[in-house]
Amino acid sequence: MAAATRGPRRELAELGAWQRPLRAQFPIVAGAGGDGGDGSGPPRAAYLDSAATAQKPQPVLDAVTAYLTTANANAGRGSYPWANHTTARVEAARERVKAFLGDPDPRRSSVHFTGGTSEGLRAVARDWLPGLLADGDEIVVPFGDHRANLDPWLEARDLLARQGVGISVRALPCQEGSGDYDPAALAAMAGPRLRFVAATHVHHVYGADMNVHRIREAVGPDPVICLDAAQSVGHQPVSLAGLDVDFLVFSGHKALALPGTGAVWARGARGPAFVPGGWQGTPNTAGIVSLAAALDWLDAAGTDRIGRWTSALASVLTDGLSRMPAYEVLGCRTSLAADTAVQRRGSIVTFRHRAIGSQDLGFVLFSHGFMVRCDDHCQAGPGPEGGSVRVSLHVYNTLEEMENLLTALATLQ
Ligand SMILES: Cc1ncc(COP(=O)(O)O)c(C=O)c1O
User: Fold this and answer.
1) Domain boundaries, the chain
2) Is 200 in the pocket of ligand 1 (CB under 6 A)?
3) DSSP alpha helices (H): ranges in 144-231?
4) What's phi and psi for 190, nearest 5 deg?
5) 61-301: same fold as 2-57+303-410?
6) Which residue, among 336, 346, 402, has the nearest Cα to 372 in the 3D structure?
7) DSSP symbol at 401
8) pLDDT of residue 6
9) What SS3 class is residue 344?
10) Is the CB of 144 under 6 A from ligand 1?
11) Cα of 80 to ligand 1 centre, how many Å?
């Protein structure tokens, strides 16, 4: 990783002239200081919770305003100009998602819009997975990632069981220390009854890139792979060509689009075609317009540079924390390079204070102007007692924010 080999501060210095005008496009962080609209936040608060949802740049807000003030109508229903325009925008947005993801075979694949990753994964589990599975089949899913990528698979198992179809759900194996999936252990689980693997691209607590491109090699050509890309799409380059997965599910709202947006991309080359079940009501047309605009914005800004920027900020924070014995950084402890304690850490750093609970720490940090997440982060399985503090970054965050945060944390040693 570039930041690991060149040093994060040098990386940030080199990218500064690129980042500053981009940050200026986010009114909520670059404007009056984001005081919560009612004076409830400190001035010039730093938003450090982009893994939960990201802020929106002005061009995305402008695209939504333009759509709502010139052509707002329902999609796929009426035949008057606004309705036709809206239908065309929704169809164009599907192609935009495919292009953004580097879909190598866009004529065969499909894109279904959702309200976010949870809804998308549940749609795959409820509307598609049961058609793949027969009595005695096995699926492998992550037991230590986000609950959104565990609960739907267990619900599908229970639904099938009520229909007399018994499947077994096994845990996707992880390596000690790095938090990575373990390809050797996964390969040992492969066999004719293994039909489906769910995985997560970037871990939402540890920030680790989970090396999911190795899963196909481990399980062979036949099992369907479904990827939760909630923490990678919009944060770093994501290319379907290099991943060899069958489903990719993400949240548009974490990728700079409006709340209530997301998508399921389905390759359509293995198993039944993905058709969301039941009557699909009115789509979130303004949200879909915002998603297409957000993907345009991200492509123009460059997801490679966005990933380098946030990784370098995360490196500064992790390195600073690792010099303070009162704190423990969770996950990814192995270092790849001599000058940083960071291994493949993307835009997320999660840590805990050895003596102060995460809620109390979050309260103190907010009094210093930092908006962080402090709980168990919706992680499946038991996390550390007392929770942890998660700092998650995007292109609008700055080195100054990381330094100020470290200064505030140092006062609590
Ligand atoms: C890895 C991961 N999966 C799924 C989700 C759920 O996303 P959403 O809230 O958009 O449904 C999140 C959200 O934090 C996440 O980080």
Assistant:
1) 2-57+303-410, 61-301
2) yes
3) 151-162, 183-189, 215-219
4) -70, 150
5) no
6) 402
7) H
8) 67
9) coil
10) no
11) 37
Among 225, 306, 319, residue whose Cα is nearest residue 8: 319
- Pick among 3.40.50.2300, 1.10.150.120, 3.40.50.300, 3.40.640.10: CATH of 61-301: 3.40.640.10
Question: Kindly report the CA angle at 375 between 124 and 334, in degrees rounded to 5?
Answer: 80
Distance CA 160, CA 235 (A): 36
Give residue 7 CA to ligand 1 midpoint distance, Å: 30
For residue 230, the CA-to-ligand 1 centroid distance in Å is: 5
Among 226, 236, 378, the mutation site with the greatest number of ligand 1 atoms within 8 A of its Cβ is 378
Pairing mode of beta strands 224-228, 247-251: parallel
Q: Rounded to a whole number, what is the distance in angstroms from the first to the last CA of the chain?
A: 31
Instruction: Report the top-level CATH class of 2-57+303-410.
Output: alpha beta
User: Which of 227, 251, 253 to mutate to test ligand 1, by most ligand atoms within 8 A of the CB atom?
Assistant: 251
What was the pLDDT predicted at 41? 53
**Is the pLDDT reported for residue 343 higher than 60?**
no
Please give the number of the atom of ligand 1 that sits closest to the Cα of 201.
1
Neighbour tally for 5: CB within 10 Å? 12
Given a contact cutoff of 8 angstroms between Cβ atoms, the answer to whether 380 and 150 are in contact is: yes
- Tell me the C-alpha distance between 176 and 165, whole Å: 34
From the list 147, 350, 333, the residue with the least C-alpha distance to 230 is 147
CA angle, 18 then 43 then 313, to 5°? 35
45 pLDDT band, cuts 50/70/90, is confident
And the tokens for 258?
Answer: 């409006």
* Model pLDDT for residues 76-131, shown as the tens digit of each residue: 999 999 999 999 999 999 999 999 999 999 999 999 999 999 999 999 999 999 99
Give me the amino acid identity at 45. Answer: A
Q: Indicate the SS3 state at residue 380.
A: coil
